Amino acid sequence: MIDFSLPADLEAERDRIRRFVIDKIVPYERDPRLTSHGPNDELRQELVELARAEKLLTIQAPTELGGRGLTHVEQAVLYEAAGWSTLGPVAMNCAAPDEGNMFLLSKVANAEQIDRYLMPVITGRQRSVFAMTEPDGAGSDPDQLATTATFDGENFTINGRKWLITGADGAKTWIIMARLAANPHLPEGPTLFLTDGDVPGIVIERTMNTMDRNYVGGHGVVRFDNLTLPREAVLGETGQALRYAQLRLAPARLTHCMRWLGAAERAQSIAVEHARTRTAFGKTIGEHEGVSFMLADNEIALHQCRLTIWHACWLMDQGHKARHESSMAKSFVSEELFQVADRCVQVLGGIGISDETVVEMIFRDMRAFRLYDGPTEVHKWAIGRKVLRR
Ligand SMILES: Cc1cc2nc3c(=O)[nH]c(=O)nc-3n(C[C@H](O)[C@H](O)[C@H](O)COP(=O)(O)OP(=O)(O)OC[C@H]3O[C@@H](n4cnc5c(N)ncnc54)[C@H](O)[C@@H]3O)c2cc1C
């Protein structure tokens, strides 16, 4: 049986979150602390306290760690509501990269690591990073990982350079991917390390200037300069980093879809209102077929995206990995929602590219979605290979 109805309490919570974001969070969209490198930490902390007061902070965390242990479908419904403002997920502590990092740590970290590195992120007191991408190494192809770790039986020494590391400036919990060299003590290969951010050997060279500004702290260029970590810094088992990254990626790419769906709906609502009121050639622009078709295409795309997300989430809730479906969802939703945002800019006319409305920010922020957690082409390449193998 296929049942698309939502439980009444989930619908009520969705509506409460949407109201919270509209009433309490949207007013911050013009706050100067929302900088070209994203919301700064002071703004983030203020937003987090608003969500905490409403009991809406980190609701996705496992129940044993203080959250509500939401299912993937529940997340889809609630994150969409949070995404109405790009600051909504920041307030509710379900924005990237923290959301994916919390998920990964809750699955792989040991009890001591949970206390020291995960709990402060869950409680909204500190931020986290996932450092994998490299200028001359890992990117779409993680096998190109060039950052090295050597182990002398007691300590690891890490050297390498990363970029596009979201939130690097100011984050306290760091997950670092490096290739462990052959050694007589531990299995070699790509390995995840967990450390504090403010230790000698982690050098933040600069924060990159990018076209998006929805991630706290922006995106950093980072150097590991003989970063020395103890044996206890290994997250999970050595040589298993790519497996853990996959564990993080399938749900994380879906949560991006959920949040951006909410932002695209917001853009559509602004375009619809404009089409109802702006006139040209003797009638409202919405009465011109060219405009109504754009709004209709948006409506269709939003609906298709929601169903695609829900299906992948439902599969994961049934215990499936849903890698193929989440890959299809990520590539489809990122491309479709960007088209939605683009059509909203078009309906708005010249003001569409100005900051008179939030559509311009959504359009710019959403562009990056087609790249991270796997560029569209890489997902289609993987989907195509699976199709050909069948
Ligand atoms: C906003 C943002 C935030 C990010 N945050 C983080 C972060 O916190 N931590 C982190 O480690 N990384 C982060 N990244 C990096 C992100 O994961 C990479 O950008 C992504 O993996 C792609 O790698 P790349 O940029 O090196 O592109 P490349 O690997 O150089 O690929 C460039 C292009 O080549 C094409 N291509 C590559 N492979 C194939 C293929 N098999 N078939 C067809 N075409 C292909 C695609 O069009 C792709 O866009 C972030 C990126 C962005 C944009």
Automatic annotation (TrEMBL):
Domain Acyl-CoA dehydrogenase/oxidase C-terminal intervals: 242-387
Domain Acyl-CoA dehydrogenase/oxidase N-terminal residue range list: 10-124
GO molecular function terms attached to this record: acyl-CoA dehydrogenase activity; flavin adenine dinucleotide binding
Name of the protein this chain belongs to: Acyl-CoA dehydrogenase
Pfam families on file: Acyl-CoA_dh_1, Acyl-CoA_dh_M, Acyl-CoA_dh_N
Presence of the UniProt keyword Oxidoreductase in the record: yes
GO biological process: fatty acid beta-oxidation using acyl-CoA dehydrogenase
GO cellular component, one term: cytoplasm
Keyword Oxidoreductase carried by entry: yes
Cofactor: FAD
Subunit-level organization: Homodimer.
Family label: Belongs to the acyl-CoA dehydrogenase family.
Keywords on record: FAD, Flavoprotein, Oxidoreductase
Source organism superkingdom: Bacteria
InterPro entries: Acyl-CoA_dehydrogenase (IPR050741), Acyl-CoA_Oxase/DH_mid-dom (IPR006091), Acyl-CoA_Oxase/DH_mid-dom_sf (IPR046373), AcylCo_DH-like_C (IPR036250), AcylCo_DH/oxidase_C (IPR009075), AcylCoA_DH/ox_N (IPR013786), AcylCoA_DH/ox_N_sf (IPR037069), AcylCoA_DH/oxidase_NM_dom_sf (IPR009100)
Domain Acyl-CoA oxidase/dehydrogenase middle as annotated: residue spans: 130-224
